[in-house]
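Kindly inspect what follows.
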Amino acid sequence: MTDTALAAPFECPLRTVEHEWVDYNGHLNMAYYHVLFDQSLDKLFNDLGIGWDYTKQGEGSCFTAEVHVCYLDELLEGDEVRITYQVLDADAKRLHVFAHMYHAEKGYLAATSEQMCIHVDMKTRRAAPFPEASQKKIEALAKAHAGLARPEQAGRVIGIKRK
């Protein structure tokens, strides 16, 4: 990643809504929003050195501790989807990321996903610090993203507001 690319939200490869992902309402089923967010996060993890190549070495991996998805607009079969990731915060063991899912052609925001990831030592299956090289990349990305606007949906809590 170049310094210029660091300052913008991280762009993931475009994806297309597949036929098998459409439910009886005729739109992308809620579970597949998670699939798209998860598979797109793999691209960011690969660039940070904590993706599949790292995980299959058996030393460490990233687990999801919490995720919150907001469904804002429909996606239909065949729609191309663009997903971006923004680092909201990070420390030695945790990575707090926020994703925006857009209809690639029409540009509207279809969904957001806020996620807390924890780095895990696969031998002990306990939280452990990121590898040093990855930690440096995460810190650089977090610093570059610090100037981005905080997403409107970040930090939301589920509940019914009572008067």
